[in-house]
């Protein structure tokens, strides 16, 4: 695409150099730059892309998007100075890939918990309904039936638009994506046209990045502030921040709830470890999901599908055939008669939701053993809270290593223990090695007991000192089951 056409939609401060040159791709990493690339210099949280402008030019970049112009300029290079590189990049990427989000119905899901489940179940529901659809999620990206590995909850703007463009080329009618608070704050969704937005809930998370809850709320709210008039917002009315999200939106507001008068309502009739019987908008449906938190997730899916013009009865039939998302309240039955649940819960609120669900189903007929850790180089303030929530709702807690990243696992464990008093610590074991922690939980469990292995869910690795080592909670559990065969 010719530079002059590429930059028509963005706010610029200064343009220096030729604007008739052709661009064959856009790069945000100088290492990926090739001949005729546009290099976007972004100010990241760790690295400032402006440092790599010269390197990008050496590798063949013919255009530079930046906030600060370099002192020395090359007369053959086009320098595009903008107020905010990230915001401009989103629009550029959308233009470069022929505005793919306007050629399908794109729905974004934001909130602390439930984003992956809601986005994934929406994708699966629309596939069941006979549509071609795409998914951008924490667990996996899909272009119709093709699975693609994912590294971030919400990718960078160039990757998002490339994936959406590929979805359009494959004939997808719908796309569903998780929208993280980081992505909103960093303008990674700039330039996208959303048909709708979903708010699941908001509890403490990512304060290592946002610093305050107020900033975290503001980031989430910005997504709804920017939705167009012809889009819809679907918010959880039972979350105190639900209506806060849509205070300034131009979109049509819709609500879902288990407790209040709303557009989409549900109640639990029966609940078991392998599923529930629900009443959704006065119709009974059997689902293969468990827990009140999943009722909210399924309501969000149901409401969204209806708002996208699907028939309510057909949506419920599709939902009834689907199973839980990988690593989200995933149940494994031990030969010794106990149950293991692997869940991604990595916030205090998510832990409480999962443990409450376990107790509701157990009804005092067994004990609960929780294996839990906390990620390194992330919000330290939630560590003691996670330990507190775990011990409050478990008979035994084993505090272990999660993804320590560049931190000492023992220091993370200590931070968690700081949230407990002397009496609470009597029912806590600390086992740094996650494999040994899981083995110990399985040794302690008796018939009818439940083990919750929290924090990693679908992940198949442990991040230690920047290196990803293969580790899969479910794989570990199945290996233990083989040694316990009766």
TrEMBL record:
Similarity remark = Belongs to the MurCDEF family. MurE subfamily.
Q: Name the Gene Ontology molecular function terms of this record.
A: ATP binding; magnesium ion binding; UDP-N-acetylmuramoylalanyl-D-glutamate-2,6-diaminopimelate ligase activity
Annotated compartments: Cytoplasm
NCBIfam families in UniProt: murE, PRK00139.1-2, PRK00139.1-4
What about PTM? Carboxylation is probably crucial for Mg(2+) binding and, consequently, for the gamma-phosphate positioning of ATP.
Binding positions for meso-2,6-diaminopimelate per the UniProt entry: 378, 402-405, 455, 459
The entry's cellular-component GO terms read:
cytoplasm
Q: Which residues form the Mur ligase C-terminal domain?
A: 327-457
Task: Tell me the ranges covered by the Mur ligase central domain, including all copies.
Answer: 109-304
Report what the protein is called.
UDP-N-acetylmuramoyl-L-alanyl-D-glutamate--2,6-diaminopimelate ligase
List ligand-binding residues for ATP.
111-117
InterPro entries assigned to the protein according to its UniProt record, in alphabetical order: Mur-like_cat_sf, Mur_ligase_C, Mur_ligase_C_dom_sf, Mur_ligase_cen, Mur_ligase_N, MurE/MurF_N, UDP-N-AcMur-Glu-dNH2Pim_ligase
Query: So what does this thing catalyse?
Result: UDP-N-acetyl-alpha-D-muramoyl-L-alanyl-D-glutamate + meso-2,6-diaminopimelate + ATP = UDP-N-acetyl-alpha-D-muramoyl-L-alanyl-gamma-D-glutamyl-meso-2,6-diaminopimelate + ADP + phosphate + H(+)
Q: Which organism is it from?
A: Bacteroides coprosuis DSM 18011
Q: What class of enzyme is it?
A: ligase
Where in this protein would one find the motif Meso-diaminopimelate recognition motif, according to its record? Answer: 402-405
Keyword Nuclease: yes or no? no
At the top level of its lineage, which domain of life is listed?
A: Bacteria
In which pathway is this protein known to take part? Cell wall biogenesis; peptidoglycan biosynthesis
- Protein purpose: Catalyzes the addition of meso-diaminopimelic acid to the nucleotide precursor UDP-N-acetylmuramoyl-L-alanyl-D-glutamate (UMAG) in the biosynthesis of bacterial cell-wall peptidoglycan.
Tell me its cofactors: Mg(2+)
SUPFAM superfamilies annotated for this entry? MurD-like peptide ligases, catalytic domain (SSF53623), MurD-like peptide ligases, peptide-binding domain (SSF53244), MurE/MurF N-terminal domain (SSF63418)
Recite the UniProt keywords alphabetically: ATP-binding, Cell cycle, Cell division, Cell shape, Cell wall biogenesis/degradation, Cytoplasm, Ligase, Magnesium, Nucleotide-binding, Peptidoglycan synthesis
Q: Where does UDP-N-acetyl-alpha-D-muramoyl-L-alanyl-D-glutamate bind?
A: 30, 153-154, 180, 186, 188
Enzyme Commission code: 6.3.2.13
The answer to whether UniProt assigns keyword Cytoplasm to this entry is yes
> GO:BP terms for this protein?
cell division; cell wall organization; peptidoglycan biosynthetic process; regulation of cell shape
């Amino acid at each position: 695409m010719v530079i002059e056409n590429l930059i028509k939609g963005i706010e610029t401060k200064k343009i220096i150099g030729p604007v008739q040159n052709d661009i064959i791709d856009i790069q945000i990493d100088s290492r990926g730059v090739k001949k005729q690339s546009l290099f976007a210099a972004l100010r990241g949280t760790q690295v400032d892309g402006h440092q790599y402008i010269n390197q990008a030019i050496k590798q063949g970049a013919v255009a530079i998007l930046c906030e600060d112009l370099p002192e020395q300029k090359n007369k053959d290079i086009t320098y595009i100075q903008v107020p905010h590189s990230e915001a401009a990049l989103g629009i550029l990427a959308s233009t470069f890939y022929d505005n793919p989000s306007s050629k399908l119905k794109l729905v974004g899901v934001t909130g602390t918990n439930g984003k992956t489940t809601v986005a994934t179940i929406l994708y699966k529901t629309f596939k069941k309904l006979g549509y071609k659809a795409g998914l951008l999620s924490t667990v996996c990206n899909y272009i119709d039936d093709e699975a693609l590995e994912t590294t971030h909850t919400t990718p960078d703007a160039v990757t998002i638009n490339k994936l959406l463009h590929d979805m359009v080329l494959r004939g997808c009618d719908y796309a569903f994506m998780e929208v993280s608070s980081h992505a909103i704050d960093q303008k990674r969704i700039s330039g996208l046209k959303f048909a709708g937005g979903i708010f699941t809930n908001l509890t403490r998370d990512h304060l290592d990045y946002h610093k305050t809850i107020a900033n975290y709320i503001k980031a989430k709210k910005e997504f709804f502030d920017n939705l167009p008039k012809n889009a819809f917002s679907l918010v959880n009315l039972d979350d105190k921040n639900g209506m806060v999200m849509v205070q300034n939106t131009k979109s049509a507001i819709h609500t879902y709830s288990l407790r209040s008068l709303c557009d989409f309502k549900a109640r639990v009739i029966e609940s078991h470890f392998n599923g529930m019987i629900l009443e959704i908008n006065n119709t009974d449906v059997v689902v293969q999901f468990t827990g009140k938190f999943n009722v909210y997730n399924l309501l969000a899916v149901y409401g969204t599908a209806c708002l996208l013009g699907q028939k309510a009865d057909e949506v419920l039939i599709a939902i009834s055939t689907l199973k839980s998302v990988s690593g989200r309240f995933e149940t494994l039955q031990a030969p010794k008669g106990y149950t293991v649940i692997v869940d991604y819960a990595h916030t205090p609120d998510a832990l409480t939701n999962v443990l409450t669900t376990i107790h509701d189903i157990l009804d005092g007929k067994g004990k609960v053993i929780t294996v839990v850790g906390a990620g390194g180089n992330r919000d330290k303030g939630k560590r003691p809270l996670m330990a507190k929530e775990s011990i409050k709702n478990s008979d035994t807690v084993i505090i272990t290593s999660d993804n320590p990243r560049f931190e000492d696992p023992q220091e993370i464990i200590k931070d968690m223990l700081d949230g407990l008093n002397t009496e609470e610590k009597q029912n806590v074991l600390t086992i740094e090695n996650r494999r040994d922690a899981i083995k110990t939980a399985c040794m302690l469990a008796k018939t009818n007991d439940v083990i919750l292995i929290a924090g990693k869910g679908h992940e198949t690795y442990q991040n230690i000192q920047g290196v990803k080592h293969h580790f899969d909670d479910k794989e570990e559990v199945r290996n233990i089951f083989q040694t316990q065969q009766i």
